[in-house]
Amino acid sequence: MEEAKIGVLMLDTTFPRLLGDIGNGLTFPFPVKYALVKGATVDRVVKEGDPSLLQPFVEGALTLQRQGVQAITTSCGFLSLFQKEIEQKVNVLFYASSLIQIPFVYRLVGKRGQIGVMTASKASLSSQHFKALGIHQIPMAVEGMDNMPEFTRCFVEGQEDMDADKVEKEVVGKAKTLVDNHPDVRAIVLECTNMSPYKERIKKAVNLPVFDIVSLTEFVYAALP
């Protein structure tokens, strides 16, 4: 059996991880090793950007490295804040957030128009999350799920049950809103890893390329020896 080459640092959550979510091991056609970062709740990571969580994430990354993975990522795009610190502590590939691929996507579309960013919380996604990756000068249009009741109930408030159909309608609806409000958006990057199960529906709804943590992880995996 193939050893896991990809490691994922997981937030401390209880909501369902559907097929297509990075937290569901069946999402990938290759093995993935997970490390739970205890205490890394949605409130502390998304709403507060709690800097005291850096050390637990560093320790989790070092643990995954010792276990033999060749690349490490996380289950939340808001962890872009920790990109620089963690990448300097490990000797394997590290990408904290799906947002890290925005410069690549912007180049793919000819550096024209804007890159659409869909996030769990527009209110919480600040310029600091982009500056931490050195991408804050790229033209971006951001759309959040802040006022979407089922998405918020499940992924922000942390309820253990969810209506997947409602979440899908909310996510796809927000993608349409993003493109309607910003017709110069030429591609979309999903900050939120919990949106990945709906990626195909989003692509069909807006007729644009959609990049997420799953496509990025498959890209990285393909490069590993």
Automatic annotation (TrEMBL):
One of its GO terms (molecular function) is racemase and epimerase activity, acting on amino acids and derivatives. InterPro entries: Asp/Glu_race. Gene3D superfamilies: 3.40.50.1860. NCBIfam families: PRK07475.1 (NF005679). This is Aspartate/glutamate racemase family protein. It comes from Novibacillus thermophilus.
